[in-house]
Specification:
The protein has one helix and eight strands; from the N terminus they run αββββββββ. It is of the alpha+beta class. The longest helix is centred in the first third of the chain and has 60 residues.
Amino acid sequence: MIFFQKNRNGSLMVELMVAASLITIGLLGIFSLIISSTRMNKDVVHRFEATYLAAEGIEIMKHIIDTDVAIPDTAFFNSTLNSGNYEVQYNTDKENELTELGYASSTRALWLDREVTGLYSYREAGVETPYIRTVRVENEGDKITVQSIVEWTVGGEKSVANLEEVFRNWRETSL
């Protein structure tokens, strides 16, 4: 019986090239997934921080409203907070750094002082952040609407976190 041997010269090279191509395509897919995941993670971190800063803006204004209500016989529910746009930071109260803006929104970035306080403020200490916070107040008598807007731009993409709270006069008013 006679066996014919096929000429297999070069077939190993073709198999190696196909295997290398498949491995390269697989690795590119994995690297693409890692890069995409890292980008999304950074976006989530920015959204989380911006939401926190927007909530802080609401809480600061709530503190100012509550302070007015707590002072007996000297202030009423809406006596000191005018409608307008404000810049506020963690230690803002009606006597301390409540800055009313004469324009639609803030242009000053918040700074994070990691070393000393660990808090965000407009004081230029620590690290400048991409966040700009504006708090809008609509005072309508027995109803105060507070809107805290945080804007940031990263990689040329502008994003916004916007929280709103409505405060009502729940106390009986005496004339």
